[in-house]
Amino acid sequence: MKRSFKAKALSSVAALSLALAMTGCASSGSGTTVSDVINATSGASSAATVAESTSSASGDSSVSATDVSEDTHFDEDDLQWDADTETTVDLADGSTKASGTGSDGVSVDGDTVTISAAGTYRLSGSLSDGKVVVAAGKEDVVRIILDNASISSSTGSAIQVDESNETLLYLEDGTSNSVSDASTYADTAEDAANAAIYSMADLTIAGEGSLDVKGNYQDGIVSKDGLVIASGQLTVTSADDGIKGKDYVAAAWRTRRDYRHWRWHQINK
What we know:
Blueprint (H helix, E strand, L loop, with lengths): L1 E3 L13 E6 L10 H6 L5 E10 L10 H7 L8 E3 L4 E5 L5 E4 L5 E4 L2 E4 L3 E9 L3 E5 L5 E12 L6 E5 L2 E6 L4 E5 L14 E5 L2 E6 L2 E6 L3 E5 L2 E4 L2 E7 L4 E3 L2 E7 L6 E8 L1
């Protein structure tokens, strides 16, 4: 049986609901729009709308997945997998355990959980002072399902992707998830991790659950490659920038002024 993102990924504009609230040290606390976040993205230029559509109260218009897939790493297949192959990771202080067919791809050192192989990993539970690290192969696709997971770190990023072809964070429908990083980092080099969610590879966030991100050190979510936010209820609070991508940022959102207006916005490097 295949588990897939409701409405087949991007087939319906209504499936792309993104509630994103941003606060930072320079903000008034009332939050900013996704376009504000995109405009602040570093290492990117030539803002362009990939696709946009409006929907009336009586029906939804369609957004083409092709437009997004052709210009980013995102693909509908990213949101389809065999549930029987999922690896379950039960997060718990001092006693995190992995089970399932891919459990050999998970190692635990104290409260640092490292994923080293392609696959689909369902994370539940909490780490009060730990982190999840993805250190897979350059061609590996790693799916991490956040299923009522809470991860906080006092030393660095809560979720850190060192290497993979693409890492997908999938927010399970009906769940509440949270990540929070340290207020100070030991490694402060220019290219060192500096966000609650930090990725050196293509990063996708999707699903219909919620994710609360607290970037206590600098940024909330950073990808040093491409970043696609396909859906989800995201709240990002950060000391500096909320969301940053290097090659591009592609996000689906509703404008505050007209909740019937939806668009894909992409920044190309």
